[in-house]
Amino acid sequence: QSAPTQPASVSGSPGQSITISCTGTSSTFGPYNYVSWYQQHPGTAPKLIIYDVSNRPSGVSDRFSGSKSGNTASLTISGLQAEDEADYYCSSYTGRSPLWVFGGGTKLTVL
Amino acid sequence: EVQLVQSGAEVKKPGEFLKISCQGSGYNFPNYWIAWVRQAPGKGLEWMGIMFPANSETRYSPSFQGQVTMSADKSINTAYLQWSSLKASDTAMYYCARRVTSGDLGGEFDYWGQGTLVTVSS
Prior knowledge:
The mean pLDDT of chain A is 95. The termini of chain A are far apart. Chain A has one helix and nine strands, in the order E-E-H-E-E-E-E-E-E-E. The longest helix of chain A has 4 residues, at 26-29. In chain A, 41% of the residues are buried. Chain A is mostly beta strands. Chain B starts with a strand and ends with a strand. Chain B contains no helices and eleven strands. By secondary structure, chain B is an all-beta fold. In chain B, strand 4 and strand 5 (45-52) form a beta hairpin. The relative contact order of chain B is 0.31. Chain A binds chain B through residues 1, 3, 32, 34, 36, 38, 40, 45-48, 51-52, 57, 87, 89, 91, 93, 95, 97-105, and chain B through 35, 37, 44-47, 49-50, 59, 61-63, 95, 97, 105-110, 112-115.
């Protein structure tokens, strides 16, 4: 079971929108929509920002949105802010072993 | 307030035993699965496995099966991750995380511990 593929890095200017892709196979995502996204600032624990493909936990800015088409999930951040600079990881429940997988992570730089 | 508090950083030698902990509070600890996630220095997140404290049911990633043991003491709301013989390649930050789901399958990890840094060096 290989990890979903994410771009190593993306960048954008304040106010712009960026999208981070998370590409897997049919076995990565299974027949499910259990894709989640995590934000990790340096030296801190990951934070859940999107679950079940497109849902936001309470308290997460609506500038964060998620979607999925086929075997690619995407995280879009609109109105980029300096505080968005972090690493972002997708995760998927596979329904087989291993039950969950993480993408390789994407470093977002706000120019 | 839900919290997962992990034990402190460890420095060990290859071949040594280690057990780290993750104590939950603010919720019904036994009834939520706890996952363990490894992050090697400068690397990404790796899902190691998950256990259900109420009955100690465990699911390991094939990459970690036989390399670590997950356990829990529900009487003190604490989950554990242990190694019987550490290797230098076990050097990493280890996070525990609570799994939440609306059904029996799937879910995501909504609360995370602060991490335990394990350094294995001779």
